[in-house]
Structures are given as structure tokens and as C-alpha cells.
Amino acid sequence: QVHLVESGGGLVQAGGSLRLSCAASGNIFNINDMGWYRQTPGKQRELVATVSKSGNTNYLDSVKGRFTVSRDSAKNTVYLQMNNLKPEDAAVYYCNAEIGALSADLLRYLEVWGQGTLVTVSS
What we know:
By secondary structure, the chain is mainly β.
């Protein structure tokens, strides 16, 4: 099995910064796209930022210029640096990745989600 585990969430004041980390573990052959989504109560989960294996990035318009997504492929880890946080950024942030997993000598590509990490922004 493969898993994603997020860390780095917490409570910050508006204008502050947080750095989220997400590490993949398990019998991993490779990882394609990795990224972050967020969700608040009563709202659909939305894409925040993604990064491909080649380094191409995609951002939600409202976080452009404030958030930076990056990855360390050797560590199977993706990061989200969040600067100038706003109250509307408060949400549960979920890591997502397309992972090639080895199982019973077979390679299967799976869409994997982390458990989520809570980001709270105080005004």
C-alpha cells in the first residue's frame, strides 16, 4: 500500500506564513503529479496547487503570488509554502498524488489522498 501524510498545518495570524509538507510512503515505483487541495465545510474541495514530475506548476488564481508548490522527488515529498495568509485561506488542506505502486510484482497507478491538515488563520 502507499500513503500520503501531511504535516505543517496550524494556527497563524493573517499575513503570516506556513509551510505544508506531504510525504509519500510505501512500495513506490514513481510519482507523477503531486499537489494540494483544500476544503471548508459546505464547499467543494478545490485545487490549490499542483506540480508535475517535470516541475510544471498550476495554481488557484486566488493564491498566485502568495503560495509556492515544490517537490523533492528523491524524498517523494511535496511542499506548499503559504505566505501572506488570509482568513479565506483557512481550510483543511489535502495532499494528492498519482503514484505508481508496486504490488505483487505489478505496477499500478493510483490516485492517493492524504488525511488532511488543518490551517486556521486568525484576523
